[in-house]
Amino acid sequence: MLQERINRVMNNHQYSCQHPGNYLFILKNFDDVLKTHTVPAEHLDPKLLHKKGNMYVTYDESLDLDSQIIEDIKKYSYRVWILDFNLFPKDDTVKEVQPDWYEARKTISVFNTINPLIGIVEDPNADHDLNKVYKDLINEVI
Fold it and tell me: Which of 25, 40, 105, 125 has its CA 20 to 30 A from that of 48?
C-alpha cells in the first residue's frame, strides 16, 4: 500500500502538470522509508543532470549540495518540489533550515493534509498510535 501511494503521488504530480520529466524531488521525512521502499525517480547524479530526467535527493542531502550542482539544477531548469512524508503532525517548535535555492511552498504531501490517516486505516477518526501505524507501513511486504 505505501509503495503504491508513493508512486501514485509522485506520478500524479508529474502527469497532472504535463511535465513527465525534469523534476528534482526533495524527499522530506523519508529517512526510514527509503530503507524499505523506493521512489519512481533516480537518486541525483550530477553527471546526468543534462539529460533532464527525474531525480531525487533527501532533505538532508539538499542542505549540503555543492554550489555547482545547484547551478546545474537551475541551468537545466529542474522543477524542484518537496515530497513530504507527512504522517506525523508538524512540530512547530522545531525550526527547519530552508535552503534559498528552492521554495518551501512547493510541497507535495504523501498523505491527506487534513487527516493523514484517511486511506491508511479503516477508521481514520478513531484514536491510533501513529508510531504503530508508521511501523506497520514501513514494514509492510512490498
Answer: 105
